[in-house]
Design brief:
- A five-stranded antiparallel beta sheet has the order 5-4-17-16-15, with helices on both faces.
- It has 29 helices and 17 strands.
- Among the domains are: about 190 residues, Orthogonal Bundle (Penicillin binding protein transpeptidase fold), CATH 1.10.3810; about 300 residues, DD-peptidase/beta-lactamase superfamily (Beta-lactamase).
- Helix content is about 40%, strand content about 10%.
- Helix 6 packs across helix 9.
- The chain has about 725 residues and is α+β, with helices and mostly antiparallel strands.
- The N terminus and C terminus are likely disordered.
- InterPro entries: Beta-lactam/transpept-like, Glyco_trans_51, Glycosyltr_51/Transpeptidase, Lysozyme-like_dom_sf, PBP_transglycosylase, PCN-bd_Tpept.
- It comes from Micromonospora sediminicola.
- Keywords: Carboxypeptidase, Cell shape, Cell wall biogenesis/degradation, Glycosyltransferase, Hydrolase, Multifunctional enzyme, Peptidoglycan synthesis, Protease, Transferase.
- GO terms for molecular function: penicillin binding; peptidoglycan glycosyltransferase activity; serine-type D-Ala-D-Ala carboxypeptidase activity.
């Protein structure tokens, strides 16, 4: 805040103001031609000395987020509700109205109305109150730019509105310089795009939308007169937030002024005055909690995009600068969100659990080969609204339940992690035909004092011995989700190799305990293959998308393109991909992943699956895996085609000890499968490429072609974890 001036200082200012006012009046009395010449000479070369913001204005503008069709609005971000439009897109009556209301001599003066300034100068300095008239549109434009220029300090922006002689003289000088270099129409256009019209609307485009729900090109005479009347005192005159009667009176004043300038006839003014004040106020959505069309489920994707934005150097050197760029930069962002896939995923998530259910089904869909995130759905409202007593995160939450982060570590995904063991084994040269006579219980090298231990070692077990035990290869071991086969296989290749494979495919250990295991004890993390580490639907879908893309990992990506206000493309939005697996390794894993979903491998080795109904629903080449965590605390399914990967995990985000139960597994499978079906609808059918004979290997014995009926779903990982690990997992929640 500026320091208070002493009485002597105020007296000197008044005396100086009187002298300056006399000088201004004397200048104003000069012949117009002579005065114009003096002003032009004084302003010669001054344009190059103007602040950058006046020469090349960069004013805060609203950023728009659209779905991947480039048309469906998700939301907007703004500190200042403002969008630039060219003069040709502003109704002529609006241009005439603002000139009549604020600066009738706009097209004849050289930037300053000296008689008006002299009158206002003395009144403002003596009174110290609200600024009086006298400022031309050009001078008002200068003031508006300087007080909102984001490159200036807060003190500099405040100084742009101080009631001082020095500030007024600088304003005159800047206005004259602009008039020597810009056309009147360019100045008028800039003014109309920056003036504040009240109710949060900066610029005529935002004002036309805010008050009348229309574009500025479509404003009527009465609407234009109303808006033009607001700029003198926007907050007081706003018919939405201020005084509707004052707004109507100001409209009448502007209409009378338009008659005096010859813009309209008296009859037109009378008709416009007699018309009722009809408002159609619309509020632009602002941020992720105010998405368009009432689709609050889009908020989770919006928040993921915002978090991604804050990491991009193209928008600033710090997260704070990037946040400001999103809210003030006027970007047009075409996101990767597919509104139709999102709608299906949301319908499926809420079909399994309602919005008010303490349990949740977060679902994520990713495009293989690009990492583009097509959908992020969960049975929650993305909202800051209060929840009923005792309900922590339902029905309203802004926590990242689908992508993880902040306080969300994720959820155990059970046997879906067997994929990473299979990939590590294939990469180590073990073919799909690698066989093992899987027992009901498998003694391991890990010490355990659990009641069910085998001579002091951990003994994982098969949940359905009659269906899982026996000689297995990767095909039917994966299809039937045989625990003892995959724990054995992990021992053969090294558990640390399995953990590294998961990380290579994008599995992030957000829980401190998981990160510590991966960092310090990966070689002894025997239970990792059974999915005891927390993950998220987005990470899991993207990991399986890497296999679908034949070994190409792409970082999850929420944008297709970002366009700056000048129409230039920002260098972001390109997929960030790299080869992390040999294509043949990924093809071999996909071949085995055909077994769980009721399809057949290229080598005819599938003989049973845990999600055979997926084949019927998707009705095209598909692969995937189910996962049940210990005691059915969570139920997971992830499926993929060459064009999409979708994962869903049923869990209680607030209480890991609340077991969702095996009965929900079939519903989770159905929800994910139907989301896949929606994502590939209308796209050409693409098949998976068969792996090489070398990586397939030679089965020791032929497998039966008939598919036995799978028993009622049970916990795939029951009794598989040592008691101390179980206690740790339960305590972590």
């Amino acid at each position: 805040m500026p320091s208070p001036r002493s009485p002597l200082s105020r007296l000197l200012t008044v005396l100086l103001a009187g002298v300056l006012a006399g000088l201004v009046l004397a200048l104003a009395a000069l012949p117009t031609g002579l005065l114009g010449g003096l002003v032009a000479k004084a302003s010669l070369g001054a344009y190059e000395e103007l602040p950058d913001a006046l020469r090349t204005p960069v004013q805060p503008q609203r950023s728009y987020l659209y779905a991947n069709d480039g048309k469906t609005l998700i939301t907007t971000f703004y500190d200042v509700n403002r969008t630039d439009v060219p003069l040709a897109e502003i109704a002529p009556v609006m241009r005439q109205a603002i000139i009549a209301a604020e600066d009738r001599r706009f097209y004849s003066h050289g930037g300053a109305d000296l008689r008006g300034i002299a009158r206002a100068l003395v009144a403002n300095v003596k009174g110290g109150g609200t600024e009086q008239g006298g400022s031309t549109l050009t001078m008002q434009y200068v003031r508006n730019v300087l007080k909102t220029d984001p490159t200036r300090t807060a003190e500099e922006r405040q100084a742009a509105t101080e009631q001082t002689v020095g500030r007024k003289l600088q304003e005159i000088r800047y206005a004259n310089a602009l008039e020597q270099s810009l056309s009147k129409d360019e100045i008028l256009n800039r003014y109309l795009n920056i003036a504040y019209f009240g109710s949060g609307a900066y610029g005529v485009a935002a004002a036309a939308q805010r008050y009348f729900g229309k574009a500025p090109a479509d404003l009527t005479l009465g609407e234009a007169a109303l808006l033009a009347g607001l700029v003198q005192s926007p907050d007081a005159y706003s018919p939405i937030d201020g005084d509707k009667n004052q707004a109507t009176a100001r409209r009448a004043y502007v209409l009378d002024s338009m008659v005096e300038t010859g813009a309209i006839t008296a009859q037109q003014a009378a008709a416009a005055k007699a018309a009722p004040l009809t408002l159609r106020p619309t509020a632009q959505p602002n941020g992720c909690t105010a998405t368009a069309q009432g689709r609050d489920d889009w908020g989770f994707f919006c928040d993921y995009l915002r978090q991604w934005w804050l990491t991009q150097p193209a928008f600033g050197s710090t997260p704070e600068e990037r946040e400001q760029a999103l809210r003030r930069g006027g970007y047009r962002v075409t996101t990767t969100l597919d509104a139709k896939v999102q709608q299906t995923a949301q319908q499926q998530a809420t079909k399994v659990y309602g919005y008010d259910d303490k349990r949740a089904l977060p679902i994520a869909a990713v495009e293989p080969g690009t990492g583009r995130v097509l959908a992020m759905a969960v049975n929650r409202h993305y909202s800051l609204a209060d929840n009923p007593a005792g309900q922590a995160n339902h029905p309203n939450t802004v926590n990242p339940l689908i992508s993880g982060g902040a306080s969300v570590d994720g959820y155990q995904a059970g046997s879906t992690f067997k994929l990473f063991t299979m990939l590590a084994a294939l990469e180590a040269g073990k073919p799909l035909a690698t066989g093992f006579d899987a027992p009901s219980k498998l003694p391991t090298r890990y010490a355990s004092d659990d009641e069910g231990n085998c001579d002091g070692t951990w003994c994982p077990a098969n949940a359905n011995p009659e269906w899982m035990d026996g000689y297995r290869m990767m095909w039917d071991g994966f299809g039937r989700s045989v625990n003892t086969y995959f724990v054995w296989l992990a021992e053969q290749v090294g558990e640390d190799k399995v953990v590294e494979m998961a990380q290579r495919l994008g599995i992030t250990f957000r829980a401190d305990s998981d990160a510590a295991f991966a960092r310090n004890d990966a070689a002894d993390w025997g239970a990792f293959t059974l999915g005891v580490a927390a993950t998220t639907p987005l990470d899991l879908a993207n990991a399986y998308a890497t296999v679908a893309a034949e070994g190409t990992y792409c970082s999850p990506l929420p944008v297709v393109s970002v366009t700056a206000p000048d129409g230039g493309k920002v260098d972001v939005g390109q997929p960030n991909c790299k080869k992390v697996l040999e294509p043949d390794v990924a093809r071999a894993a996909t071949d085995a992943a055909r077994c769980p979903v009721g399809q057949q491998s290229a080598y005819g080795q599938c003989n049973g699956g845990t999600a055979t109904g997926v084949d019927r629903i998707v009705d095209r080449p598909v692969a995937g895996k189910t996962g049940s965590s210990e005691r059915n605390a969570t139920e997971t399914f992830v499926g993929f085609t060459p064009q999409v990967a979708v994962a869903g995990i049923a869990a209680n985000p607030d209480d890991s000890t609340d077991l969702v139960g095996s009965a929900v597994q079939a519903k989770v499978i159905d929800a994910v499968a139907r989301t896949i079906k929606a994502a590939v609808a209308g796209k050409p059918v693409r098949d998976f490429t068969a792996p090489s004979r070398e990586l397939a290997g030679e089965p020791r014995r032929p497998q039966p072609r008939e598919e036995p009926q799978r028993p009622t779903p049970r916990d795939e990982n029951r009794d598989n974890l040592p008691s101390d690990l179980l206690r740790w997992l339960q305590g972590r929640g």
